[in-house]
């Protein structure tokens, strides 16, 4: 799976109160969607199963899933919800009025315009319980009207996308837990390691293991599961990657680049560079790759 194309994009996020007994039936949303029941109750019918919708319920729905919402006649539910794709899909030509269209008749559903599903399974029904308010506060910052972005709404859309990135990161951490996402301790540590690499600070792996409270062996295991590389491979790969940029775009000599990225000598830099790229720094520069 090519994760480089995944940049979650929210088209519509809002608070939606149902009227007493209101039914929204035979819905097929073209994008992915997430709903929180913030008050009241009702019924969600999904995949032929009826679920009691009550406060604290979180629902994730993949594109094109047939579903119904039916509000209680006495205590109708309220949704805080969003409609998004894992990467932007332009449906402007087919749906000029709304950027997050919903179909109510199966025969009219354009399957070629359905959004892509996430590559790993995500739970459809969950209960966020006492943390409901923190979830909805985060999502409400992404509230955006259901219209295509234009010159008048561009800045507002940028702001919504920024806040939505925070929300979807929390959603994935909650939904995937330890199954597929990297350990957050290592993810935070990577930013610090990269900053220290650029500043010339000594990289002490034992110190990092102590700081996150794990053994050196377990630290190496966590690091490799998160990055796919050992700590030494990661630090060398990072420095070589930055050096490649300078070789192609700066007037620095090979010796100056070796010094900039704190290699002990130009010979060690050249040897390491060749190990990771297959050619010398000078050959790389001349090739213009």
Condensed summary:
This protein is an alpha+beta fold and 289 residues long. Helix content is 39%, strand content 20%.
Mean pLDDT: 91
Write down the secondary-structure element order: EEEEEEEEEEHHHHHHHHH
Structural class: alpha+beta
What portion of the residues fall into strands of 2 or more residues?
15-25%
Question: Alpha-carbon distance between the termini?
Answer: 25 Å
Give a description of the structure.
By secondary structure, the protein is an alpha+beta fold. Helix content is 39%, strand content 20%. It has helices spanning 132-140, 154-176, 184-199, 205-211, 216-227, 231-249, 254-260, 266-277, 281-287, and strands at residues 9-17, 23-29, 32-39, 41-46, 49-54, 57-61, 67-71, 78-85, 102-103, 125-127. The chain is elongated and about 75 Å long. The model has no long low-confidence stretch (mean pLDDT 91).
Main traits of this protein?
289 residues; alpha+beta; five-stranded antiparallel β-sheet; 10 strands; 20% strand
